[in-house]
Amino acid sequence: MLCLLILLAIGLYDLYDHLRSEKLRKSYKPFPLPSNDDQHRLASRDVSIVTPSIKTADSFPTFLNTLLDQDPLEIIIVTIPEWEERIETLVSSDQRCSQARGQRRIRVLTIDHPNQRDQIVKGIDRCKGKIIAMVDDDTSWVNSTRILHLLAPFEEDDVGFVAGPVNYVPKERQDPRIITAVEAIAIQKRRMRNNAMKTFYAADGSTNWCLPGPTILGRAEILQDPAFQRAFTGESWRGVRCNIGHDGFLTKWVLFNWHRLAPHRGRTDIPQARRWRLGIQHTREAELLTSVERGAGLTFGQMVRWSRQGLRTRVRWLCDEPGFWGMRRSHPYLAWRMVGDCVKPLLMVVWLGALCGTWFTPGYRWVATLVYVVYLLRMLADILDFVTDYPYCWVHFWVVPFVRLWPYFSDILVLLYGLDDEVWSNRDLEGS
């Protein structure tokens, strides 16, 4: 009987959580654009772009052209000396990029060591725009992207950082005959994340752990503040200075207004009365396209890296700053979901035990069968939604249950793979 009660309790809570999440997701509203151009407080020429780059790909000029299409004030590329010549060559190989370089709209800077955060800060210090966009060098601001849509949340004075949805697969690969399982996994993972962004933001103004790293826009007054930069470049994990996780740090700084916390008071240029919040602009026009490696080993490694960063974020936020109770005061939905993610593996074990116990309890086998069928139907409905949204992925429909079940064992894999690793990207460069 105990197994039956546990099974029903978990099932009812799961149903409640699903319905609540759907209600929140549907209640999300994007930031509206001003009704006419004269009402825009910010324009594309108010935006400086910072791009840290290492092991730069041959497609770099194409990436730069997608940025130039948005007509920003400047593009600042920050690399290390051994890659400077290659970047200079790639920029010069494209007529439009070369012309922009001559006009000082594209600049290449270097630092003496590879570290994503240090490279970002080097670029930030040279920016002249009111808004600074931190953009990964494998991201494309595709044709549908309009920078004014990403700037719209900044029309509200208390919005500090902004991000939009991310997609992976370009049109030329949206074909069931050529799309790989790796790309389908990335699409499903991003599909879940994009939906969760709406849910979290509608619930309490937060996001699911962190803003999407490929492109984050922030106010220059925050990013150029000395207190922010000291904390950003000085953050460490078990005594090692952090290289990765800039997206998580930026999210935490704004969500919990770190400039107001005791360690940073008196050392910041931002008035202590100022309170910041996030802006999530989840519209088709704000969507960005980023790359995905097609090798199975690389994708497994990338999923582990994503999960590692998520686990580190949960441990740090729940146990250190701001702590569970501090988080709960300002963003209760985020706090609760973080705790829920931490206990997911345990809940899975309890649920499976309760399901088996109910199955072997005389007279209640039908309950276990019903619960199993309900979960199976929900999974099938999710697969149908996935195939409907991405018909070119129908041959890889199995990625839906794979990605859905991944969080239940990912933390264990992270611990085995290494929680302390500071690998930057798919290009497999170790940070310092």
UniProtKB/TrEMBL annotation:
Residues 1-21 form the signal peptide. Pfam families: Glycos_transf_2. GO terms for molecular function: glycosyltransferase activity. Its main location: membrane. Transmembrane segments: none annotated. Keywords: Glycoprotein, Glycosyltransferase, Membrane, Signal, Transferase, Transmembrane, Transmembrane helix. SUPFAM superfamilies: Nucleotide-diphospho-sugar transferases. The keyword Amino-acid biosynthesis does not apply. The keyword Signal applies. Residues 48-199 form the Glycosyltransferase 2-like domain. It is found in: Membrane. One of its GO terms (cellular component) is membrane. PANTHER family: EXOSTOSIN-LIKE 2, SYNTHASE CPS1, PUTATIVE (AFU_ORTHOLOGUE AFUA_7G02500)-RELATED. This is Glycosyltransferase 2-like domain-containing protein. It comes from Cytospora schulzeri. The lineage of its organism: Eukaryota, Fungi, Dikarya, Ascomycota, Pezizomycotina.
